[in-house]
Each structure stands twice: as C-alpha cells, then as structure tokens.
C-alpha cells in the first residue's frame, strides 16, 4: 500500500463512519482515529496547516492509510478504543490508559442483582453493552429501580439459608424498594419474571417502561411537582434518543475469527475480523490474484490458513459465509441471523469497501488493469465468447412520427469513442415505424463497414426489447453476420437484457458494472439521437417558415441563414439590408410578410 501516493489513497476513502490508521514507511502504526465521515476527516490532515508541531510531524511520516468501516459513530468510538489499547500507537495520547467502557451486569445468582461494572468476569453472569456513556447506564438503572423493586444486598439467598431465617429485611424493604426475598416475602418465580422484563428494557424495548414514565410525569405535573416532573422528562428524552445495542460488540461472542470473501474475474478480497471478549481487535483485508478459475471456497480456505498464521490466531471458532473444510478441531459456523450474521455482514462490507478503494486507485495508477477487469466481467455477465472491446449501440428518435432519425454510438474499452459516432436519416421507412427503422440503420451501418473492410464490433446493443432486437437480427442475417457479432437488446422498463432466440430476459444486478456500461451506452445513444432530432426539427421549422413566403425557395433560404444565422435576425433586418442579400424584389416579399 505504501507505494500508492497519499492523494490516491485519500481519493478512494468512503464517506462513512469508521476508524482510520496511519502507517509510516516501515509499516509501523502511527495513529488510530475515529470519524463520522472517513473521507472528510482523513483528508483534513493533508489539506490544512496544523498549529501543533506534533501533528505536522505525524502528517510528514504518514505513508499509508488503512480504515475499517462501521455502522455508527458509537461503534467507531468503541473500535478506536480497542485498537489503541492493542497497538498503543506513538501519536495516540487519549484512550491509551486502561480505562474500559462500562457494562450492565445481571449477576448469575439466586434473585439476581443488577449493577454497572467495568470488569467482565466469566462466571455465567449476563453483560449488556458496552456503553459509551455512564449517564445512559444510570438512567436505565434508575428507570429499572423505579419500576421494579430489586434487592441490592449481596447475601447468598439459597433456599436453605432463607428458610433457616438467617437474614433480616433492611431499610430498602421498609422504603418499598425491595420486597424482602431474604425473608421469603417474594417468590423466586415472581422475581425472575421481573428480571426477564428488565432484559427487554436493556435490549431497547422501552414501550411499557416509557408508558409508565409518561403517566408518572403527568401525575407529578398535576400535583405541581414540576422539578420532579422535569427530571423524569429528561430521562424519557435520553431513553427515546438512545440506541442501546451495537453490532460491533456482543459479549456472548468471544475469541472468534470472522472471514468473508468478495471476488471478480481477476482478484479476490478476503476480510478478516478478530473478536476477543465480544470486541473487534483486528481487521485486515487480503487481496489475492487468481491464477486459474479457483472457486471462492478454495480461495477462502487458503486465505483463512494464511491469515491465521500471519496473525498467530488461536481462536477455535470461525464464522464464514459458506461451509469450508478446515482443521478438525476448528468449529466452523455459517451464521443465518442475529448478532453473528450482523458481524459477518460487517466483515463483508469492509471487503467491499476495500475492493472499491482498490478499483479507484487502480483506475488512476493502472488504467489497463481496470479496463481488463471490466471487459472480463462483461464477457462473463453477458455470456460472450470474447471480451467486448468494441461495442456499438443503436437508438431510434422520432417524435409524433416527424423527422425520423437514428443514432449509433461507439465504445472502445468501455469508454466513448465520440469521433466514431454516427447519425442516420431514415430513408426507406414511411411514418413512425421503430422496427423497420432499426432494420434499415443496422443494415446500412454494417454494409458500409463490410464494404470499407473496417473492423466489426464484438457486441451490438439495441435500445429496445424483443421487437427491436428481432429487426436488427434480420439485417445481420441479410449481411451474413448473424453469429459473427454478439447482439443484445436492453428494455427500459426493468432494464431486462434480451438475447437472440432466448425468450427469458437476463436481469443483471443493479450495481453491476456490466449493466452500468450498457446503461451508459444506451443513454449516450439516446442523447446523441435526440440532439440530432431536435436540430433537424428546428431546421425544418425554420425552413418551412421562410419557404412558405411566395417566391422564396431553398437557395434563398440558405443564403439568408448564411448571412443572418437565425429567423429572428431576418425578421428584424431592414428592407435595404435584405435587398443587399437577396435583391429588392425578394426583400420586399420577406419584409412585408414579417411586418
């Protein structure tokens, strides 16, 4: 990555939330940061003068930039914290200490306590979070305590000890904050039902709790207790605006490696996310050049072994998008839904972004590789026998049957070759007949190319469905080119692609580069044809307006337009000026018509 200029790396960054990492010439990590918009934030380091000397030195040392895309800013903050703790980059001062984010714990015990903690102890307790704000945790816990009476003591409430009368109720019981399970005043079944409802609140299902808060707030307002009502209103706002769950971290997912793959004709991109105690501690994308027609399964299998060795991973559980054969002691999981599936999707999104970045960089640095990849993709997507290096697209233009014309646009290596564009006036067809017009134009185009012994295209694109495609095929049959040139039709409605002798159209992925080039061809042919058609109609309207004057013919019209450029100027010209151009006799007729 270091050999790619910084300007090119910046141009390919996505405008998404994420974490960025700066590396020096020796590939040592310099700095980790988070951003709401990666492109904007990272670019700001390079396009402004920094007051701090440390930042100026940092920017001079940066030779490569890597990034991880995440769904939200909150996720970026958590991931930034994890990466700074792991790598301790030289230029990171904040978050270098051992501070961790807080969790809400439901303790694994009889009559469970609920409390905030920064320690993650593996004792079967449930942990929810982590949270980026302790204020949110306190608001949630205050809400829970105000709705559900829970114990706060740390007694061991085993049945035999409670039955033996070992404990006595405390002040919390007398204040109404606890129902006294220590003396058997509350059944374990009822208490556990409360805990289940509390789990829903923590997960983000606030419906019943918010209803309770709002009615309590109204009651306080009616009793003129406005300060207390305001405090409850503040809590409601925090709860309504807070998004509790994050897809970046899930406490139940521990020591897991996640792998996904995105591939095209030439390269594959494998993303690796390493999770420890529910947090992402590493993200890496490997680019693999294909040598033969290896399957995604083969490539992913090889990449998993390579990446795990490179990063010395000892995780025994692996999430992948499809089944792969690995060592027997490894547990391979193909997630179908829930948090595991979300983490897999996040990995795939990072692979896609990496691939897009590489495309943008390659387009600048190595345009030939970019072109070769697209041509290879089009050959595969459109079932062609060879790469469509030379493509021609036809479009008919007639409005209400007037001035029928057609356009042919030419693309070479996926780009417009405007000097080869051609316009056609329809000669043999009377009235608005798109099918017959298409047949005429295709015949004229390739008859000429054959006569002049010019190179033929590898692909013809017809703007229209099965009808227009059939008409074009008639011309290819007449010229003996039926199976020598591939031909397809593209229908506007659903962007269906029709093939000869195949009644079922092909629907390409809307994001497919092959479809984008075909759409670009079609749109360019339409634009080129419409422009010609408008010019022709405009010229015809001008000519008819002047020719309708008695005694004025084609030659006189041409002479007038040559001198005056427009009908408006002819109308504004004086009798003497007109006479100098066409003589006094004709000048009088023109002048009198317009005045």
Automatic annotation (TrEMBL):
<dbReference type="InterPro" id="IPR000305">
    <property type="entry name" value="GIY-YIG_endonuc"/>
</dbReference>
<keyword id="KW-0234">DNA repair</keyword>
<feature type="domain" description="GIY-YIG">
    <location>
        <begin position="15"/>
        <end position="93"/>
    </location>
</feature>
<comment type="similarity">
    <text>Belongs to the UvrC family.</text>
</comment>
<dbReference type="InterPro" id="IPR038476">
    <property type="entry name" value="UvrC_RNase_H_dom_sf"/>
</dbReference>
<dbReference type="InterPro" id="IPR004791">
    <property type="entry name" value="UvrC"/>
</dbReference>
<comment type="subunit">
    <text>Interacts with UvrB in an incision complex.</text>
</comment>
<dbReference type="Pfam" id="PF22920">
    <property type="entry name" value="UvrC_RNaseH"/>
</dbReference>
<dbReference type="GO" id="GO:0005737">
    <property type="term" value="C:cytoplasm"/>
</dbReference>
<dbReference type="GO" id="GO:0003677">
    <property type="term" value="F:DNA binding"/>
</dbReference>
<dbReference type="Pfam" id="PF14520">
    <property type="entry name" value="HHH_5"/>
</dbReference>
<dbReference type="GO" id="GO:0009380">
    <property type="term" value="C:excinuclease repair complex"/>
</dbReference>
<dbReference type="GO" id="GO:0009432">
    <property type="term" value="P:SOS response"/>
</dbReference>
<dbReference type="Pfam" id="PF01541">
    <property type="entry name" value="GIY-YIG"/>
</dbReference>
<dbReference type="GO" id="GO:0006289">
    <property type="term" value="P:nucleotide-excision repair"/>
</dbReference>
<protein>
    <recommendedName>
        <fullName>UvrABC system protein C</fullName>
    </recommendedName>
</protein>
<feature type="domain" description="UvrC family homology region profile">
    <location>
        <begin position="262"/>
        <end position="476"/>
    </location>
</feature>
<keyword id="KW-0267">Excision nuclease</keyword>
<dbReference type="Pfam" id="PF08459">
    <property type="entry name" value="UvrC_RNaseH_dom"/>
</dbReference>
<dbReference type="InterPro" id="IPR047296">
    <property type="entry name" value="GIY-YIG_UvrC_Cho"/>
</dbReference>
<dbReference type="InterPro" id="IPR050066">
    <property type="entry name" value="UvrABC_protein_C"/>
</dbReference>
<keyword id="KW-0742">SOS response</keyword>
<dbReference type="GO" id="GO:0009381">
    <property type="term" value="F:excinuclease ABC activity"/>
</dbReference>
<keyword id="KW-0228">DNA excision</keyword>
<keyword id="KW-0963">Cytoplasm</keyword>
<dbReference type="InterPro" id="IPR001162">
    <property type="entry name" value="UvrC_RNase_H_dom"/>
</dbReference>
<dbReference type="InterPro" id="IPR036876">
    <property type="entry name" value="UVR_dom_sf"/>
</dbReference>
<dbReference type="InterPro" id="IPR035901">
    <property type="entry name" value="GIY-YIG_endonuc_sf"/>
</dbReference>
<dbReference type="InterPro" id="IPR010994">
    <property type="entry name" value="RuvA_2-like"/>
</dbReference>
<keyword id="KW-0227">DNA damage</keyword>
<comment type="function">
    <text>The UvrABC repair system catalyzes the recognition and processing of DNA lesions. UvrC both incises the 5' and 3' sides of the lesion. The N-terminal half is responsible for the 3' incision and the C-terminal half is responsible for the 5' incision.</text>
</comment>
């Amino acid at each position: 990555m270091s050999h790619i200029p910084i300007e090119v790396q910046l141009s390919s960054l996505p405008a998404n939330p994420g974490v960025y990492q700066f590396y020096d010439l020796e590939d040592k990590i310099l700095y980790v940061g988070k951003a709401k918009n990666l492109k904007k934030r990272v670019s700001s380091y390079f396009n402004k003068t920094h007051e701090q000397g440390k930042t100026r030195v940092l920017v001079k040392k940066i030779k490569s930039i890597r990034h991880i895309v995440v769904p939200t800013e909150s996720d970026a903050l958590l991931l930034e914290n994890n990466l700074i703790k792991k790598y301790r980059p030289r230029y990171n001062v904040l978050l270098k200490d051992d501070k961790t984010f807080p969790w809400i714990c439901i303790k694994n015990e009889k009559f469970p306590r609920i409390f905030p903690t920064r320690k993650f102890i593996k004792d079967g307790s449930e942990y929810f979070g982590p949270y980026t704000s302790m204020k949110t945790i306190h608001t949630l816990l205050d809400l829970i305590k105000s709705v559900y009476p829970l114990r706060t003591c740390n007694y061991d409430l085993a049945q035999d000890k409670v039955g033996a009368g070992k404990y006595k109720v405390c002040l919390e019981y007398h204040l109404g904050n606890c129902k006294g399970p220590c003396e058997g005043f509350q059944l374990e079944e009822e208490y556990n039902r409360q805990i289940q409802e509390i789990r829903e609140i923590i997960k983000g299902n606030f419906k019943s709790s918010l209803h309770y808060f709002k009615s309590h707030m109204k009651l306080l307002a009616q009793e003129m207790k406005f300060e207390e009502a305001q405090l409850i209103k503040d809590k409601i706002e925090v709860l309504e605006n807070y998004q509790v769950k994050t897809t970046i971290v899930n406490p139940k997912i521990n020591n897991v490696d996640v792998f996904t793959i995105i591939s095209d004709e030439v390269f594959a991109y494998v993303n690796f996310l390493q999770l420890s105690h529910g947090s992402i501690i590493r993200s890496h994308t490997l680019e693999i050049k294909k040598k033969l027609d290896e399957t995604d399964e083969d490539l992913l299998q090889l990449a998993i072994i390579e990446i795990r060795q490179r990063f010395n991973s000892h995780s025994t559980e692996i999430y992948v998008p499809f089944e792969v054969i690995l060592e027997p002691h490894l547990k391979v999981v193909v997630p179908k839904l829930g948090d595991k599936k979300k983490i897999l999707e996040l990995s795939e999104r990072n692979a896609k972004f990496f691939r897009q970045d590489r495309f943008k960089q390659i387009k600048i640095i190595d345009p030939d590789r970019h072109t070769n990849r697209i041509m290879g993709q089009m050959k595969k997507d459109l079932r062609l026998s060879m790469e469509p290096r030379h493509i021609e697209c036809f479009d008919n233009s007639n409005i209400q049957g007037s001035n029928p014309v057609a356009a042919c646009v030419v693309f070479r290596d996926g780009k417009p070759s405007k000097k080869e564009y051609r316009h056609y006036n329809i000669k043999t067809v009377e009235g608005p007949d798109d099918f017959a017009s298409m047949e005429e134009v295709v015949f004229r185009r390739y008859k000429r190319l054959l006569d002049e012994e010019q190179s033929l295209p590898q692909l013809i694109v017809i703007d229209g469905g099965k009808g227009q495609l059939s008409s074009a095929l008639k011309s290819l049959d007449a010229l003996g080119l039926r199976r020598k040139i591939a031909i397809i039709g593209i229908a506007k409605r659903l962007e269906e692609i029709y093939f000869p002798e195949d009644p079922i159209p092909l629907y390409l992925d809307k994001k497919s580069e092959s479809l984008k080039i075909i759409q670009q061809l079609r749109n360019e042919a339409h634009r080129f044809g419409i422009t010609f058609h408008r010019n022709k109609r405009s010229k015809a309207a001008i000519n008819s307006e002047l020719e309708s004057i008695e005694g004025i013919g084609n030659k006189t019209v041409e002479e007038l337009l040559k001198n005056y450029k427009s009908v408006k100027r002819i109308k504004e010209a004086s009798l003497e000026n007109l006479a100098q151009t066409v003589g006094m006799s004709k000048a009088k007729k023109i002048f009198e018509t317009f005045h």
